[in-house]
Amino acid sequence: MNLRKIGVVMLALLLAAMAMVPMVSAEVNSVSNQLDNTTALDEQMNAVESKVMGPEYSVRDQPLSRLEFEKSNAEYIKFLQKNFNQSVVNQMVDNEYKKSQKGMNAISTAQTLSVPPVIQIGGRDIYLWPYTNSAPNGNSFTGTTNLIFYGMTNSQVANYFKNNGYFKYHDALGWTEYGYHGQSLSAMQWTSSPSNSPYQLEDGSYFGNRYHLVLTSGHYSLSLGKNWCYGQTHYEYWSTINPGHWLYPNSFDVAKNHLVTSNPSLPKTLTNLYNYWSGLHNGYGYIFTMS
Amino acid sequence: MIQFTSTISEKYRNALVFSSALLFCLLFMRFIILIVEFFSISVQFRMMMGLDVVFVFIIPIILVFMLANKMELSTSFFLPLVVYGLIFPICDALFLDPFTLLVYPQYFITFLIGGIGFGLIGLSGKIYPGDLLKSLMIYSFGISIIMINSFNIIPVLYYVVTGDMTPLQQISNFF
User: Fold this and answer.
1) From A45, A190, A192, B135, which residue has the greatest number of CB atoms within 10 Å?
2) CB contact, 8 Å: B156 with chain A?
């Protein structure tokens, strides 16, 4: 074998090794981090307990009328009208409406659930499906709930994070996300979180890194009134080689910790939300007391 | 010593120029994003997507295919593979969150697969003058790998050409 061939083989081996080393070390790190996190979380767990409801209380789909759909996406449609001509906007809204009516979301990264759990938070009259989806159905999900805010509506929470904290959030763009919640198991409803304030905020930029916060407004609760809301936050980046937003590892945990780091004085407790997502979310969320 | 250095630099000059040009082209979209965001310039979304397609796909493919002819056979495959599969992701991560991305294996896998596609295009560019059919086959295989690897590029390309956003809406993580 001549020198050149040996060189080529060595280069191939080097490449393979360079790919393998981070793979193995990252796997080990993620396993050990997960174990550390679980132990730490168990130690930190406060009195706020959540309870999983039985599979008989699974998520029910809710078809929206065209008018309701347009109303819930009004902000985003306004943004589209600024950037595209009316026929393109109409076509886009048409497509998205049809997609939401199909029940199944035809998206590539949506996760399929076998038994979608509805949970009760802290013994209160707050029952929720700890996920969000881009259509009002529970066949799949696009995000896991990791934040609950007591004492403020979603618009108050949005204003708070836009004006307080070490890192200020600002309005973000994104398609509408839907949350499923209710005062009792027989009164569950879908609520939309349209693009822009006071539902979608970001710390970062659309074409770079961003901590994306999606807020869902809460229903009337006997103990909290309308002054509560919940949501999910994730850490993502824009890829130029495969255009779109891609989640960082432990995206939901990193983003919720970012919010905590940014607002250390906010009183908070941890609670199990039973929505573990491998490599992205440890299944625990923070309950912030905002008032 | 000077003669030895100049011989080395002469030998590797082509490869160095090629690598630099390819890397600069691939990273150009990140520079555009930086400039647009820093100066808060309002750029049409379709224009941004068009620039992405041009600088991350069209020009690099042409560049690799054209310049591979001036390299040795193994270099024509391995140089695009190393630049696209290893150096580009490292540099790209510096614009984002390097500490997280550089230890995230899934991040590199996409680039390495794409790098194989670019390597095959380099190979096809090298053997193009001697064996057209073989070159065409390898080129098609390389393009297929790139397209399948960067699957969002097909709806983005369609949107850039026609202005129809329908396929983009099928991508859950796009907006």
Assistant:
1) A190
2) yes
| Location of structure tokens 């839907």 | A178
Question: How much is the ipTM here?
Answer: 0.90
Collapsed DSSP state (helix, strand, coil) of residue A226: coil
**Is B169's CB within 8 Å of A208's CB?**
no
Instruction: With H, G, I as helix, E, B as strand and everything else as coil, classify residue A145.
Output: coil
| C-beta of residue A236 within 8 angstroms of C-beta of residue B107 | no
| Ordered per-residue pLDDT tens for chain A, 291 residues | 565 676 666 667 666 666 555 554 444 444 344 434 444 444 454 556 666 766 555 566 656 667 766 766 666 676 676 666 677 777 777 777 776 665 433 333 444 454 458 898 888 889 999 999 888 888 888 899 999 999 999 999 999 999 999 999 999 887 788 899 998 888 888 888 887 778 999 999 989 999 999 999 999 988 888 899 999 999 999 999 999 899 999 999 999 999 999 999 999 999 999 899 989 999 999 999 997
Using the beta-carbon criterion (under 8 Å), do B49 and A83 form an inter-chain contact?
A: no
- Reference A229, options A257, A199, A201; nearest CA is A199
Q: Residue B88 to residues A148, B82, B115: CA-CA distances in angstroms?
A: 40, 8, 10
Residue corresponding to tokens 């979301």: A105
Whether the pTM exceeds 0.90: the reply is no
User: Do residue A241 and residue B36 have CB atoms under 8 angstroms apart?
Assistant: no
| Half-sphere CA count of A167, side-chain side, radius 13 A | 19
- The dihedral over CA atoms of A152, A261, A281, A233, expressed in degrees to the nearest 10, equals 40
Which residues touch A127 (CB under 8 Å, ≥6 apart)?
Answer: A53, A57, A118, A119, A120, A121, A181, A182, A183, A184, A185, A188
Q: Do B103 and A110 touch (CB under 8 A)?
A: no
Sign of CA dihedral B85, B90, B93, B98: positive
**CA–CA distances in Å: residue B100 to residues A9, A254, B31, B104, B108:** 30, 11, 21, 6, 12
Residue A117 · residue A53 · CB < 8 Å:
yes
B105 contact residues in A (CB cutoff 8 A) = 19, 22-23, 26-27
Of A267, A281, A76, A254, which is closest to residue B165 (Cα–Cα)?
A: A76
In whole angstroms, what is the distance from residue A91 CA to residue A82 CA? Answer: 15
In single-letter form, the type of residue at position B11 comes to: K
